[in-house]
Amino acid sequence: RSFVWDPTLIVSQIISMQCIFYGLLGFWICIMDFIAGADKSLDQMFKYQELQFKGLSGRLLVGAYALNALTCALGLWYIVKRTKQCLDFTATVHFFHLLICWCYNLAFPQTLTWWLVNLICVAIMTVVGEYLCMRTEMKAIPLSLGVKTDL
Q1: Span 66-86, mean pLDDT?
Q2: Rounded to an integer, what distance in angstroms lies between the CA atom of residue 118 and that of residue 50?
Q3: For residue 87, what is the enclosing H or E element?
Q4: Main-chain dihedrals φ then ψ at residue 43, nearest 5 degrees
Q5: Is Protein transport found in the keyword set (predicted)?
Q6: pTM of the prediction?
Q7: 29, 71 contact by CB (below 8 A)
Q8: For a 10 Å CB count at each end of the chain, is N or C smaller?
């Protein structure tokens, strides 16, 4: 990683994280639909009225979003690799998700559940991503290549 402004790298990371976000969300929704015996639909991903705490399918969809936040944190760790940038990339991914949901519904998301679930997912994805990146950044850097001797 270079320390100069690299817009190509940043845009590539944003696109990669967006692909990971929707790919894994689709995966988790398919798993939850299989458990609930529900029909698969893009509405589950983009229609803000689908996210609800009522009914089994609504709770499983909320669970899919939570699992997606956890697995996307692994994407932050693998693609972004910087603790300081985890919140930035998480907010960017969810901002684009907001815009896509807005375009898909032709209306701004208005349910409290949608906002609550997405804010919790932002928090989960950021905290877990920062934890994973911090552990990697804090690894000891060997200063010599010689044989290690204990004194």
Answers
A1: 94
A2: 13
A3: helix 86-105
A4: -55, -35
A5: yes
A6: 0.86
A7: no
A8: C
Q: How confident is the model at residue 149, as a pLDDT?
A: 59
- The pLDDT of residue 122 is 97
Provide CB contacts within 8 A for 43, sequence distance 6+. 50
Helix axes of 55-75 and 7-36: crossing angle, nearest 10 degrees: 150
Residue 33 has pLDDT above 60, yes or no: yes
pLDDT for 145 equals: 65
Total number of residues shown for the chain: 151
Given this model, what pLDDT does residue 146 score? 62
DSSP code of residue 106: T
Read off the amino acid at residue 83: T
Under 8 Å between Cβ of 108 and 47: no
141 phi and psi, to 5 degrees? -100, 120
Neighbours of 147 (CB within 10 A): 5
HSE, side-chain direction, 13 A CA sphere, residue 21:
24
- Measured at the CA of 8, the angle between CA 15 and CA 77, to 5 degrees, comes to 55
